[in-house]
Amino acid sequence: MSRLQEEGSSPVHGFLLSTVSSTRPTETSTTHERTGLDLAMKLHYVKAVCIYSAETARELTVRHVKGPFFPVFNQIPWITGRLSRHDSGRPFIKCNDCGTRFVESHCDLTVEEWLRVPDRSIDESLVYHQPVGPELAYSPLIYIQMTRFKCGGLAVGFSWAHIIGDPLSVSHFFILWARALAGEEIYCPETPELERDFPKPSPTGKEPSSIKRVDPVGDLWVAPSDSKMTTHSFNVTVKNIKTNFLANGDEFEILSGIIWKCIAKARGGPEPVTITIIRSDPKGLKPRVVKNSQMISSVQVDFSVAEAKLEETVKAIREATDERSDIDKIGESDDFIVYGANLTFVDLSEVDFYEAKIKEMSPKSVYCNVQGIGDNGVVVVLPAAEEEERVVTVTLPEDEMEKVKWELKMCGLIKTFISGE
To answer: 3-state DSSP: the chain helix, strand, coil percent, rounded to 5?
Structure first.
C-alpha cells in the first residue's frame, strides 16, 4: 500500500478485499512464458488511477464496477494466473485462474476537494499495492482498487506487475473494462508468446546502458534502493513549452531536455550524462494487446548537461539508441532494474486512459506512475484532462527534490513554488 495508507493519515480507508477472475476455466497445465524483456521488468509495477465525477459514477454500485472485469479476464485469462519457476529457475505464468484482488475503499473527501491538490502524486493512496512474493503461488499480478468519494464520485486504481505488460497495456485493459461496463461486446487478440519484433542486438555485444544488475532478490520482487524516494507532480501547458523553450523536437523531447538540465544543475556533480528514454513503439499501437512493447533507449553524452544549450540535450534525446533486443537477450539471466537505473524519462502521450469513459464521459483526472524506481529517478509525462496540458510526475531521492523544484521554477517551467508541496 501507499505510505499514506500505511500511516493511517489518509482520508482513504475501509479496505475490503475480494477476488475477481475469468468465468471460463483455463485448460489444466496451460502456461504463459515470458520474454527476456518481460523478465527484466519484473521488479517494476505500473500504478494507474482514473477519477470520475459524482454525476458520472454516483449510480454505479460495487457490482456494476466489479462485473465488467469478468468478461475482460475471459479475453485475457493468463493475467489472472500465478507465477512459478521452471527447474532452470526461469519464471513463467501458470494459467490457473486464481484471479486478481479487488479492493473496496472509501474517501472522506469529495472529488472536487480531492482534485484541489495540485500535486497529483496524492493519487498513490488510491492504488492498493503489494509486490509479488515471497510466495509466488499466492501473489496476484494485479490489484484493483475501487474508491467511493463522499460526493458519490469514483476512483478506479490499478497496481499492475510490469512483467505482464507496459503502461499501454494497462490503458488498454482500462478501456476494455469501460467498454464492458457500457454493455459492449469486447475482444482482445491473444498475446503471441515470446514475440520479439525488435531491432537487431548491438554487434559489439556490450551490455545495454539502460538497465542495471542488482543483487538477487529471490522470490520477493522488490527493487532495491539506497535512497528514500519521493514523488512530485505538476502540470505544464503545451503553449508554455513551445513559446518559451525553443528547440527542434516534440513536446516530450523538449520537456525531457529541460528537466534533464534542471536535475543536472541540482545534483552538481557527477552529472547524469547517461539517461534512459522509454516511449511507446508505434508498431505496438495496433492491434492493442497485453505485452511489454515499449521502446527502451539510452542516451550518453560527453558534455556538461547543466551548461549545455537546450537544443543540445534535445538533439541527444532524439538520437537515443533502442536497446530492447539487448535487454531481451540478457533479461532472464539476472535481476535488473530499468526505471531509475539511469535518470529515466517516460513518454506516455500514447497511453489513452481518458478513453476509459463512463456514460460517454472521460475521467476528471488520470494518474500513472511506476513502483520500484532506482536511485537515479524517473520523470513520467502523461496527457492531462485539458488537451493543451501535460502532467509531469517526478520521482527522485528525497534530498534532491526541493533543489530540482527550485531549478524548475528558475527556468520558468513551473510558475509557483511552495516548499513541501
So the answer is: 30, 25, 45
Q: Which residue has the higher pLDDT, 239 or 275?
A: 275
234 to each of 55, 249, 352, how far by Cα in Å? 26, 21, 19
Task: Give pLDDT, residue 367.
Answer: 96
Our CA dihedral for 156, 161, 164, 170, rounded to 10 degrees, sits at: 20
pLDDT band at residue 204 under the 50/70/90 scheme: low
Nearest to 266 by CA among 411, 159, 387, 150: 411
Q: What count of residues does the chain have?
A: 421
| CA-based torsion, 10, 12, 17, 19: positive or negative | negative
Give Dmax (Cα) for the chain. 60
> Distance between CA 360 and CA 210 in Å, rounded?
40
pLDDT of 314 > 70? The answer is: yes
Burial status of residue 49 (CB atoms within 10 A of its CB: 0-12, 13-18, 19 or more)? buried
What pLDDT, on the 0 to 100 scale, is given for residue 418?
40
Give the long-range contacts of residues 270-274, CB within 8 A, separation 24 or more: 271/304, 271/305, 271/306, 272/305, 272/342, 272/343, 272/376, 273/300, 273/301, 273/302, 273/303, 273/305, 274/209, 274/298, 274/299, 274/300, 274/301, 274/342
> Is the previous residue joined to 140 through a cis bond, with omega within 30 degrees of 0?
no
What pLDDT sits at residue 33? 93
Distance from the Cα of residue 284 to its chain's centroid: 17
Could you tell me which of 318, 316, 380 has the C-alpha nearest to residue 346?
A: 380
Q: pLDDT tens, 158-188?
A: 999 999 999 999 999 999 999 999 999 998 8
Q: State the DSSP string of 363-384.
A: -SEEEEEEES--TT-EEEEEE-
> For cell 537515479, what's the residue?
376
* 175 vs 215: CA distance, rounded Å: 37
Look at residue 131 in the predicted model and tell me its pLDDT: 97
